[in-house]
């Protein structure tokens, strides 16, 4: 039984890596490790975000210090570089959506320093969102400090 669980875990990790989304670090704009983020079935930006659907996300991160609480900040870049929040996602508490990367076990805050975790969630693409090409900025925050972040080009339609 344990051997079967190990095989299933290995297959799940392989599937996650094989379908990862290419993203950039939010502040530097440099390409990130290619197996950090998976947004729906998007492999290469721009990711297609279809209105009236829910899009899944898996985001691998490692806190550099102990994390007491965790919120997500999700913004979309509009004209003139103005960033507006994704309604229904931005500001959400996400401590109940965190898993250990090594064994898939669900955990809760506080999160330990230097341990790799996976944030798993889905987010709505509301019908009233404007149809546009944008950059989405996704940030995990402990109070007001950034724990981890990425940016990705997307088309909302």
UniProtKB/TrEMBL annotation:
Chief place where the protein resides: secreted
Give the keywords, sorted.
Secreted, Signal
SMART domains per record = ML (SM00737)
| Residue ranges of every copy of the MD-2-related lipid-recognition domain listed in the record | 23-154
Q: Which Pfam families match?
A: E1_DerP2_DerF2 (PF02221)
Gene Ontology CC annotation, any one: extracellular region
User: Where's it found, cell-wise?
Assistant: Secreted
Report the superkingdom from the record.
Answer: Eukaryota
- Record's Gene3D superfamilies? 2.60.40.770
Identify the SUPFAM superfamilies for this entry.
E set domains
- The signal sequence is 1-20
Q: Which family does it belong to?
A: Belongs to the NPC2 family.
Protein name listed in UniProt: MD-2-related lipid-recognition domain-containing protein
Could you tell me which species this protein originates from? Trichogramma kaykai
């Amino acid at each position: 039984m344990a051997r079967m669980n190990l095989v299933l875990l290995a297959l799940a990790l392989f599937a996650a890596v094989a379908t990862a989304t290419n993203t950039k670090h939010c502040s530097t704009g440099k390409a990130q490790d290619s197996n950090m983020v998976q947004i729906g079935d998007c492999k290469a930006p721009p990711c297609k975000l279809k209105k009236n659907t829910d899009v899944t996300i898996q985001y691998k991160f490692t806190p550099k210090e102990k994390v007491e609480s965790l919120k997500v900040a999700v913004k979309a870049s509009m004209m003139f570089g103005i960033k507006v929040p994704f309604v229904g996602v931005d500001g959400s508490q996400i401590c109940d959506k965190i898993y250990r990367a090594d064994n898939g076990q669900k955990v809760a805050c506080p999160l330990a320093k230097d341990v790799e975790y996976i944030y798993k969630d889905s987010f709505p693409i509301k019908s009233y969102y404007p149809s546009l090409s944008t950059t989405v900025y996704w940030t995990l925050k402990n109070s007001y400090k950034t724990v981890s972040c990425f940016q990705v080009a997307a088309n909302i339609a």
